[in-house]
Design a protein that fits this description.
Blueprint: H1 2-11, E1 13-21, H2 27-36, E2 40-44, E3 48-56, E4 59-71, H3 73-84, E5 89-96, H4 99-110, H5 125-136
Antiparallel strand pairs: 1-4, 1-5, 2-4, 3-4
């Protein structure tokens, strides 16, 4: 039974959904749909008002946001289909986050600040000039 659970965890991928909404309170609809499809929400942006370059469904402005989440690839299709029928969502785009971006985030989390090596002394200008003369000769 544990092997099945591990396989399901390994099969999950990291996705990002970007969306344009009619009003900022509509974000709850997207979050509720994500919870219905049993995904793990990793990061949410704040919802910002933007002016649209062209009208979308007769709206000249919208509210933009994005959510990073981890989900089973099989559930993405049904999630996307359920979003199509939500009138509050003007546009959305679901992408797979590039693996390099995921790895960079993990590296940033593990980043350790290294202290300077105390055994090395600072190089003086005179020593630097002597070294340059040696190299140029």
């Amino acid at each position: 039974m544990l092997k099945d659970t591990n396989n399901n965890l390994e099969a999950k991928k990291v996705y990002e959904i970007s969306f344009l909404l009619k009003d900022p309170s509509s974000e709850k609809i997207i979050v509720d749909l994500l919870n219905q499809h049993e995904v793990l929400i990793k990061n949410k942006s704040s919802i910002n008002s933007i002016k649209l370059a062209y009208p979308i469904k007769k709206y000249l402005s919208a509210y933009f946001g994005y959510i990073n989440f981890e989900a089973d690839p099989a559930s993405i299709k049904s999630f996307s289909d359920s979003l199509k029928f939500k009138e509050e969502v003007l546009r959305y785009l679901i992408i797979t986050v590039p693996i390099t971006k995921v790895l960079q985030k993990k590296d940033e989390e593990k980043k350790v600040v290294k202290e300077p090596d105390a055994s090395r002394s600072a190089l003086t200008n005179e020593a630097l000039e002597e070294k340059l003369k040696e190299i140029l000769e």
